[in-house]
Amino acid sequence: MTSTVVAAERMPTTRRYLMCPPRFFAVEYSINPWMDPSRPMDRDLAEQQWTKLHDTYVDLGHKVETIEPQPGLPDMVFAANSATVVDGRVLGANFRAPQRAAEADHYRRWFIENGYHNVVMPTRINEAEGDFAWTGKFLLAGTGFRTDPGAHAEAQEVLGVPVVSLQLVDPRYYHLDTALFVLNEDEPNIAYYPAAFSKGSQKVLSRLFPQAVIATAEDADCFGLNAVSDGRNVILPTEATALAKQLESRGYEPIFVEISELKKSGGGPKCCTMEIRG
User: Which residues belong to the signal peptide in this entry (predicted)?
Assistant: First the structure.
């Protein structure tokens, strides 16, 4: 018997995001398959694309705060990699690549200066929302290329939420947020690209989310899964057209943004967007 997913009326919820302007953005080294320092990059265009993403959130009624970028940290624009926040508890980051290590303390100080006293810095390699996705009930946690498996247990202890570990197997999708995103948290559902995960993790996701949106290889390749949803509006790259059609059929409202320059460093809308919950 074939199941049919009926489009529901989706209700957005107001979100609070932290972003970092790409003032010093550049591709100066290679720490993922998308990065090629010899490839031309237009920083002015990157700033325009980031500004459009920022303004899209504001236009949707979300609160967007910014952290001051720092020279010598070209990837600091990817705010999602620097903390995971659930119910006001903040778990910072501990980057695998030495080129990004200093970013973690700048974000830690931002939280302290903005009134967050329950801030814990991890002892294990942990690249925050790059590999952690809060579903509203439990935390999906990726490993395989960046975040250590031991960081999953640490996140459970610090954040006080159940954690489901997932194994990434394709180096192009080196972070969980390149292969999966949460569509809504009221009745948790996701969109994901199965081939980015091990066979066992595919079975886990299928069991947990039988109504998930399954992305095509083309959607995954254009960073379509590095998307941000507020429960109705879904911000995703302009090339993710097949994914957008699936989302529309489920009652979501796709909103396209250009990420051509950000993608040259292996990032997209979600990479630039840390969500602050509580």
Answer: none
Q: In what order do the strands lie in the sheet with 16-19?
A: 63-66, 16-19, 274-275
110-134 per-position pLDDT tens digit? 999 999 999 999 999 999 999 999 9
Residues marked active site are found at 175, 271
Give yes or no for residue 31 having a pLDDT over 70. yes
Which CATH number is 42's domain given? Answer: 3.75.10.10
What pLDDT score does 2 carry? 42
89 backbone dihedrals φ, ψ, rounded to 5°: -90, 130
Label residue 236 exposed, middle or buried (CB < 10 Å: 0-12, 13-18, 19+): buried
Inside any domain, residue 271? yes
Is residue 2 a part of any domain in this protein? Answer: no
Rounded to whole angstroms, how far apart are CA atoms 203 and 176? 16
Dihedral in degrees, nearest 10, Cα atoms 188, 192, 194, 198: -70
Question: With the C-alpha atoms ordered 70, 75, 78, 80, is the resulting torsion angle positive or negative?
Answer: negative
C-alpha triplet 46, 266, 213: angle, nearest 5°? 110
Torsion over CA of 230, 235, 147 and 187, rounded to 10 degrees?
30
Helix H or strand E encompassing 192: strand 189-192
Residues 137-158 have pLDDT tens digits of 999 999 999 999 999 999 999 9
